[in-house]
Amino acid sequence: MIHAVDVTYYLCNADGCEYKAKTAGNLKSHKAMIHDIDVTYYLCNTDGCEYKAKEAGNVKRHKAAIHDINVTYYLCNADGCEYKAKQPFNLKQHYKNTPFEFHYIKFASSPLQLLQHRSWFLIRNLLRVFITQ
Description:
Blueprint: E1 10-11, E2 20-21, H1 24-35, E3 42-43, E4 52-53, H2 56-67, E5 74-75, E6 84-85, H3 88-97, H4 111-114, H5 120-132
Antiparallel strand pairs: 1-2, 3-4, 5-6
């Protein structure tokens, strides 16, 4: 077991809170996120929108998702498929949930990468495609 020796802890002074942090920055983040103390809010500057967040990245995602501002679209590269996603995870889910015949070899560049995927059915069919090439 590792013991903290000669560590200075920064204690939260909010009523009833026993949080302690090893850095002042972590304590500041805790106070802002949990207790709304010394919070800097980031605002959506779109006309009529009152969205605000404690992190700038959340406002950026909000603008892309709600207002289509500065959106990076991730496009399906299967022939004839017009699917596009605002998040890479959604595109990966699209590949995973769409029939094999339509999307083959979309998220694997080698048979070795296929072995890391959970679905044996998909692996078997993708290996069939690699072997026939």
